[in-house]
Design a protein that fits this description.
The complex is a heterodimer.
Chain A lengths: L3 H9 L7 E4 L3 H4 L11 E4 L3 E5 L20 E8 L2 H9 L5 E4 L3 E3 L4 E2 L2 E2 L3 E2 L5 H7 L3 E4 L11 E2 L14 E3 L3 E5 L5 E6 L5 H7 L4 E2 L5 E2 L3
Chain B lengths: L8 H4 L8 E4 L9 H10 L4 E4 L11 H5 L3 E6 L6 H8 L4 E4 L2 H12 L4 E4 L13 E6 L2 E9 L3 E12 L4 E2 L8 H7 E12 L18 E4 L17
Parallel strand pairs in B: 1-2, 1-8, 2-3, 3-4, 8-10, 10-11
Antiparallel strand pairs in B: 5-7, 6-7, 8-9
The chains are: A alpha/beta, B alpha/beta.
């Protein structure tokens, strides 16, 4: 079973040279730590940065330079700053190659819910609805089951949706799964020490298991 | 040159009345018009419909106008950092319209560019689409559904810039730019507070982010706190 960093490390393998990548808040943010040195990747932060760098050294924080999670960050050589309309313009026009974000639920047809629990949590969707409606390649980073032990990979989402038929791949502490265009979670890889049976048990939506499922190569 | 300078926040916010719609620039606490928010508290303006990506925190930014219950309605994309906001929303005291961040930005842009509507895929198939016109377009190599969203109509836009000149031209700094340029362009009356106000001619015209035609009143603000919401650092070595 993977911890949060393990999930981030596995997702980092999906990042390819030359990609512009948008990382959501939470586990997706950790992905940046595992992008191999020497690979040319630019991180987009939807508040208006391309070429976002790591956190600043102590004492070098700049209140005017934050990421989409409102954290102080830095800029890398070749970076650029732009306004919010342009930021979502480049997202809508599919200039950003890969979007990695968290989710509360994903359905077997690729619907995602991650912004609202009616009566409990209403923080807003931020840029998530724009991202999932336009991105070509969306990977979800999340726990396979919620705190109550219920599967987050469902036949149909119960929570209010963020977007429909958009998730392409899911990486959890147990497995890597692909959402097939015709529907269903296709099991691609299992986490070290996790059996296919455990993944079947933790998945409420339609799970497709074909042939031998290899262990993740981390 | 047309001079856009006013003395201070008090003079800049003259004419702001109860029950008006006001845009506030900023993302989180970054690039917010601190002086103007303080002035609105002094004025006690009530029934504000605030268009702002976020709602500040409990004791800073728009959170201050929530504490004084001057805001009637918030139109935002993300309000997670504010307990008072959540309390007022759940109790029904505060009207809230949550919309996607890109939709918020682009509805400002539509107003800025004189276009009544935009079509965006954000929110299709979600509760955001309820009551909105949906149209299918073939575009960019695929056919999909888009929501019609209307340009905002705001009585005032209040923005914060880094530098400005007496002609009202604005330059923003780093990610404090965020929603400020398109809101500056979208207000019926736009008020800009700046950290440095310089005489016309001192800013390079090639470096202007927002031309002064959009900025009706400009003043140099004071005592900027520029609070950091999430101070994240790394250790040397």
């Amino acid at each position: 079973m993977l911890d949060k960093n393990g999930i981030a490390k596995r997702i980092a393998k999906e990042v390819k040279n030359g990609m512009f990548v948008n990382l959501g808040i939470g586990i997706p943010t950790l992905v940046a730590n595992y992008i191999p040195a020497g690979m040319s990747v630019e991180l987009q932060s939807e508040n208006g940065i391309l070429g976002m760098g790591p956190f600043p050294f102590e004492g070098e924080e700049d209140a005017d330079l934050i990421n989409a999670g409102k954290q102080t960050v830095t800029l890398l050589p070749g970076s650029s700053i732009f306004d919010s309309a342009m930021s979502f313009g480049m997202i809508r026009a599919q200039k950003v190659d890969l979007t990695i974000l968290g989710a509360m639920e994903v359905s077997e047809n690729g619907d995602i819910a991650n912004w609202k629990i009616p009566g409990k949590m209403v923080k807003g969707m931020g840029g998530a609805m724009d991202l999932v409606a336009s991105a070509k390649n969306i990977i979800v980073a999340m726990q396979h089951v919620n705190k109550a032990g219920q599967s987050k990979l469902l036949p149909k989402c119960d929570l209010p949706l963020t977007g429909i038929k958009c998730v392409k791949k899911i990486v959890t502490e147990l497995a890597v799964l692909e959402v097939l265009p015709q529907g269903g979670f296709k099991l691609l890889e299992r986490a070290p020490g996790v059996s296919v049976e455990e993944i079947i048990k933790a998945t409420a939506g339609k799970l497709i298991v074909e042939g031998e499922i290899k262990e993740m190569d981390l | 040159m047309i001079n856009r300078v006013v003395k201070n926040a008090e003079e800049a916010l003259k004419g702001v009345k109860d029950n008006q719609t006001i845009m506030f620039g900023g993302f989180g606490l970054c690039g917010i018009p601190e002086n103007s928010i303080t002035q609105l508290i002094k004025m006690g303006t009530k029934g504000i419909t605030a268009i702002s990506n976020n709602a500040g925190v409990d004791d800073f930014g728009l959170g201050l106008l929530l504490q004084t219950k001057q805001i009637k309605k918030m139109i935002s994309s993300y309000v997670g950092e504010n307990d008072e906001f959540e309390r007022q929303m759940l109790s029904g005291e505060l009207e809230v319209e949550l919309i996607p961040q890109g939709t918020l930005a682009t509805r400002c842009l539509a107003a800025a560019y004189g276009m009544p509507v935009i079509y965006t895929p954000a929110g299709v198939g979600t509760e955001v689409s309820i009551g909105k016109e949906v149209r299918r377009f073939a575009f960019n190599g695929e056919e999909k559904e888009y929501l019609m969203e209307k340009a905002f109509e705001a009585d005032f836009a209040i923005v914060k810039a880094w530098k400005g000149d007496t002609a009202g031209n604005l330059i923003f700094k780093s990610t404090a730019r965020n929603f400020n340029p398109m809101m500056a362009m979208a207000g019926k009356i736009t008020i800009a507070e700046v950290e440095q106000l310089v005489p016309a001619g001192q800013l390079d015209p090639d470096h202007i982010h927002t031309p002064g035609i959009y900025v009706h009143r400009i003043f140099q603000g004071e005592n900027y706190e520029k609070r950091i919401e999430q101070r994240t650092v790394r250790k040397r070595n």
